[in-house]
């Protein structure tokens, strides 16, 4: 299956490339630059800016909008390979800061492709900055302004909501199905702060495995799970049944779309509102 | 079935030719399709013969991506397989590979420290090299008593030091944040994706010299196979040979592992494949291992780039996928010979 899919991907764009090459020669302005977008929120922003038709390939963490599922995948953002990206014949590679390895971007630059790294957003202002950077780069200033004002509007809508200062934790599945909890400096932590909740696991930075006894110690009111993590955690039932979380009522568990919750892309205002509503329900 | 002594030279020549063909395929094949004629053009222009007038991105693909990778694959495969053959000969143990005397785990620890403490990626190969060297030295120190190095103590020392470095690595993994953890995992999987010309500029001469030393000591290795005392009677200074060979092995393997990370299978199994093809005499076993190791690694890396293109598979997975069936087939067809040798 892989071979066929790969072959399909190698073969069909070639005619297109030739056509594109001719277009480039005859009218340089006519052909919009071909883009490879790497990183879930970068891809989401590019599509939100109406530049999705220029995207010729994405990485496997780019899952939104759903149409990205039909694009060729150049591998996982952190284990990229230069030639696979080159084979898509991009003019411009837009990659999130966490993408790598670094040597791959050096090789791409060496092959004459312009590479832009986009910092990973950790606050609403970072997201605004990301949208503005990409809007300028893709020559879509109006769409950029619309996205930014929509984002600001939905964040203001959040300010009008009644927020509950709950103690919450965000968990993902680690090796062997153990529970990993998001500490400080994570996108999860930033989202909790944004909706007025307190990250009950603020004693460490990054994601750490946390045992059942320590989960009891953290005593959160709510447990938030990005949906991609459910499988490794044994599903929602498996998570609820963990001794460290068993005392919590069923409505304390909140499942959210991973990229929506952790991507901090253009939809982060909506994500925050949805999270705030869930936390309202999840109250003690 | 014994291998006819007269067949050894032609078989070695055939293996060498196959490896060269594999290297050319590695240059000509990849997710980006480049016609063979243009590939040849570019390669000729790179070695200073003729002028190439091909599209810049094709030139760049071969010059800065494929060529360094193919060379790196050759060097890495030769170092791992040659090192494996030498260590199996020195210890008279067919299960030994370079990783067993602490080189890989030490290198991994060195890399982990750089990644987690955040010393910058420039230092990574140096730290990995130093880590591999230090842990191999620790193993030798453990195995040395009264100026002699015992093979059994070497293996046990390797087990002990590997356990220690694995524990330290576990601590580093715990201390790592998400991003560091992923770079660390990527490094430990093994990959040739980070190869550049700067690394090759010193790797090729270093590994080349080490390989010459490995090949030159074939008589001593044959003599050591009969036992240290017999070797002594044959006029071989076992201790000197052992020190010299361990040093070149650690240098060669440590240097490549520092750049590629841990690549499984090659160091352990390639010497066995070559033994089945060319017999156990080190005069052919060592060069054969260097050639087959290099060839297998090039084939594996080319497949790794192609199978799931435009993404890429970890090369360690592919070396085992390609090498294991070959090994099983050889083992199956020659299993009676193994029985006789054991008797």
Structure description:
The complex is a heterodimer of chains A (284) and B (343). Chain A is built from eleven helices and ten strands. Chain A has helices at 2-26, 40-48, 82-86, 102-110, 124-137, 141-160, 187-194, 212-218, 235-240, 258-262, 268-281; strands spanning 35-38, 55-58, 92-96, 114-118, 167-173, 179-182, 198-199, 207-209, 222-226, 253-256. In chain A, strands 5, 6, 7, 8, 9 and 10 form a six-stranded mixed sheet that branches. In chain A, α6 runs parallel beside α11. Mean pLDDT of chain A is 86; it is low at 1-12 and 22-27. With 343 residues, chain B is mainly α. In chain B, α4 crosses α5 (124-143) and α4 runs antiparallel to α7 (178-189). A two-stranded antiparallel ribbon of chain B has the order 1-2. Chain B is 77% helix and 1% strand. Chain B has helices at 5-28, 36-46, 56-91, 103-117, 124-143, 151-175, 178-189, 197-216, 218-225, 228-233, 238-260, 266-278, 282-306, 315-333, 335-342, and strands at 144-145, 148-149. Chain B has a single domain, classed as ABC transporter involved in vitamin B12 uptake, BtuC (Orthogonal Bundle). Chain B starts with a helix and ends with a helix. Chain B has 15 helices and two strands. The A-B interface holds A 2-3, 6, 9-10, 14, 57, 60, 72-76, 78-89, 98, 100-104, 106-107, 110-113, 185-186, 205-207 and B 30-33, 56-57, 60-61, 64-66, 121, 177-179, 182-183, 186, 191, 193-196, 305-312.
């Amino acid at each position: 299956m892989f071979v066929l899919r790969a072959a399909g991907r190698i073969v069909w764009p070639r005619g297109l490339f030739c056509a594109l090459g001719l277009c480039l020669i005859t009218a340089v302005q006519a052909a919009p630059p071909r883009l490879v977008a790497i990183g879930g929120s970068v891809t989401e922003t590019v599509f939100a800016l109406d530049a999705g038709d220029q995207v010729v390939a994405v990485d496997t963490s780019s899952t939104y909008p759903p149409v990205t599922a039909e694009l060729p995948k150049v591998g996982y953002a952190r284990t990229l390979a230069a030639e696979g990206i080159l084979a898509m014949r991009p003019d411009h590679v837009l990659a999130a800061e966490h993408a790598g390895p670094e040597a791959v971007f050096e090789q791409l630059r060496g092959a004459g492709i312009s590479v832009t790294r986009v910092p990973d957003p950790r606050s609403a202002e970072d997201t605004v900055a990301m949208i503005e950077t990409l809007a300028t780069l893709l020559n879509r200033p109006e769409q950029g302004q619309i996205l930014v004002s929509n984002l600001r509007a939905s964040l203001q809508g959040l300010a009008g909501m009644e927020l509950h200062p709950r103690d919450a934790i965000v968990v993902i599945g680690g090796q062997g199905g153990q529970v990993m909890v998001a500490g400080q400096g994570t996108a999860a932590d930033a989202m909790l702060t944004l909706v007025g909740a307190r990250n009950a696991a603020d004693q460490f930075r990054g994601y750490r495995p946390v045992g059942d006894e320590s989960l009891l110690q953290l005593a959160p009111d709510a447990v938030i799970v990005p949906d991609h993590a459910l499988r490794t955690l044994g599903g929602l039932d498996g998570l609820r049944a963990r001794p460290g979380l068993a005392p919590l009522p069923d409505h304390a568990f909140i499942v959210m779309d991973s990229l929506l919750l952790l991507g901090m892309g253009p939809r982060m205002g909506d994500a925050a509102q949805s999270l705030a509503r869930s936390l309202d329900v999840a109250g003690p | 079935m014994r291998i006819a002594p007269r067949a050894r030279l032609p078989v070695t020549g055939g293996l060498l030719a196959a490896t060269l063909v594999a290297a050319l395929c590695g240059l000509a094949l990849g997710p980006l399709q480049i016609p063979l004629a243009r590939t040849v053009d570019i390669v000729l222009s790179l070695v200073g013969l003729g002028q190439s007038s091909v599209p810049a991105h094709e030139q760049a693909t071969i010059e800065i991506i494929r060529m360094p990778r193919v060379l790196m694959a050759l060097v890495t495969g030769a170092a791992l397989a040659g090192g494996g053959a030498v260590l199996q000969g020195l210890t008279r143990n067919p299960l030994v590979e370079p990783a067993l005397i602490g080189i890989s785990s030490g290198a991994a620890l060195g890399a982990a420290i750089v990644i987690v403490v955040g010393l910058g990626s420039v230092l990574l190969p140096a730290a990995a090299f130093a880590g591999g060297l230090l842990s191999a030295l620790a193993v030798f120190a453990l195995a040395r008593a009264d100026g002699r190095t015992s093979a059994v103590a070497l293996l046990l020392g390797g087990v002990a030091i590997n356990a220690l470095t694995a524990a330290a690595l576990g601590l580093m993994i715990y201390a790592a944040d998400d991003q560091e953890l992923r770079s660390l995992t990527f490094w430990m999987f093994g990959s040739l994706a980070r190869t550049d010309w700067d690394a090759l500029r010193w790797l090729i001469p270093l590994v080349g010299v080490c390989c010459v030393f490995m090949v030159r000591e074939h008589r001593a290795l044959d003599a050591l196979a009969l036992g240290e005392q017999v070797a002594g009677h044959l006029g071989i200074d076992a201790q000197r040979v052992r020190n010299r060979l361990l040093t070149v092995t650690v240098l060669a393997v440590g240097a490549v592992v520092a750049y590629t990370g841990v690549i499984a299978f090659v160091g352990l199994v390639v010497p066995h494949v070559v033994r089945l093809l060319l017999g156990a005499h080190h005069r052919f076993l060592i060069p054969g291992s260097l050639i087959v190791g290099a060839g297998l690694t090039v084939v594996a890396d080319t497949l790794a780039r192609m199978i799931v293109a435009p993404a890429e598979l970890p090369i360690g997975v592919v070396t085992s996928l390609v090498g294991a069936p070959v090994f099983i087939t050889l083992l199956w067809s020659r299993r009676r010979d193994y029985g006789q040798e054991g008797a």
